[in-house]
Amino acid sequence: VNVLSLAVCHGTLGLYSDTRTKIKYSRLMEQEAERAIALDPNYAWAHHLLGRWNYEVASLGAATKLAVRIIYGGLPDASCAKAITELRRAVELEPKALSHRIDLGFAYLAAGQKGKARASFEQGLAMPSAEKHDEVDKARLGLGKAAAGKQQQKSRGEMTHGGSFSIGRLR
Predict the structure, then answer these.
(1) How many CB atoms lie within 10 A of CB 38?
(2) Distance between CA atoms of 56 and 94, rounded to whole angstroms?
(3) Per residue in 4-13, pLDDT tens?
(4) How many CA atoms does the CB half-sphere of 167 hold within 13 Å?
(5) Strand ranges for the chain from DSSP E
(6) Cα Rg of the chain (Å, integer)
(7) How far is CA 1 from CA 11, 38, 68, 101, 153, in A?
(8) Is residue 8 classed exposed, middle or buried when 0-12, 13-18 and 19+ CB atoms within 10 A define those classes?
(9) Count of beta carbons in the 10 Å neighbourhood of residue 32
(10) Which residues pair with 113 in a beta bridge?
């Protein structure tokens, strides 16, 4: 747990840092998540963090990746396939954790697997909010508490996220 806490701290500090420091912290975050898994292969949140790190880095644009490689020496290899593997493992270890399913949906979406993304989002949204961050995860899909209830009433499944994301488009 302490090792993963370091990874989370690096990720949080990176949000408020200059580009060079963000890249440094991103590398450290990935290393600490890997170390947490090495210490406890059944730690779902370590798999979750590593999966999310993979799809976030894999989703960077080609121009951004090239600039990071030229100016800062690049980032470790990341892929949507590895993200999906890690997040599936998190779901296997903690099937009642809504966050794992939502981020698995985003990893599928980043990999272009819209049907699987939709299914994962719907599974997560159907779960009750049990943790303090569950409503935040639902809100990432554009669904707060009130909208989550309305979603069940909609026959077509159209849900939007700030006007730019729609689960209904994932058919």
Answers:
(1) 10
(2) 22
(3) 998 899 888 8
(4) 28
(5) 160-161, 165-166
(6) 17
(7) 15, 12, 30, 21, 40
(8) middle
(9) 23
(10) none
Quick check: pTM over 0.85? no
Q: How many CB atoms lie within 10 A of CB 97?
A: 22
Q: How far apart are CA 171 and CA 165, in angstroms?
A: 13
Q: Which residues contact 49 (CB under 8 A, 6 or more apart)?
A: 4, 7, 8, 11, 29, 33, 36
66-110 tens-digit pLDDT? 888 888 888 888 999 999 999 999 999 999 999 999 999 999 999
**Residue 35's CB: how many other CB atoms inside 10 A?**
14
CA angle 147, 135, 137 (to 5 degrees): 100
Tokens for 56, please give them.
Answer: 């976030």
Paired tokens of 165:
């994301």
Contact 25, 14 (CB under 8 A): yes
